[in-house]
Amino acid sequence: MTQALLSLSRQEALRADLPQVADLLHHRRAGEIDEAVIDDMVSLSWLEWLGGSLQLTTTGVNICRQQQPK
């Protein structure tokens, strides 16, 4: 699935969920992340598989930073 196939509302929902996903990854609790969320975030290049581990991409990190209150 590519970014173009995800609706704008789905992308916005994923954007809102990304900080929580990042926190779960930080605490090594990736198993608690819904597989559909993982697939969609990978298709958006916000997450990537590296050596069997799921991690945020640079884009994902930047989006998380945008979500932080100023």
Find the count of extended strands (DSSP E, 2+ residues). 2
General form: globular
Q: Which CATH architecture is right? A: Orthogonal Bundle
User: Residue-averaged pLDDT, rounded?
Assistant: 92
Give an overview in words:
The protein has one domain: Arc Repressor Mutant, subunit A. The protein has a two-stranded antiparallel ribbon. Helices cover 54% and strands 11% of the residues. It has helices at 8-26, 35-43, 58-67, and strands at 47-50, 53-56. It has 70 residues and is mostly helical.
Structural features:
70 residues; mainly alpha; Arc Repressor Mutant, subunit A; two-stranded antiparallel ribbon; 3 helices; 11% strand; globular
Helix-strand blueprint:
Blueprint: H1 8-26, H2 35-43, E1 47-50, E2 53-56, H3 58-67
Antiparallel strand pairs: 1-2
Helix pairs in contact: 1-3
Summarize the entry for a quick read.
The chain is mostly helical. Helix content is 54%, strand content 11%. It has one domain: Arc Repressor Mutant, subunit A (Orthogonal Bundle).
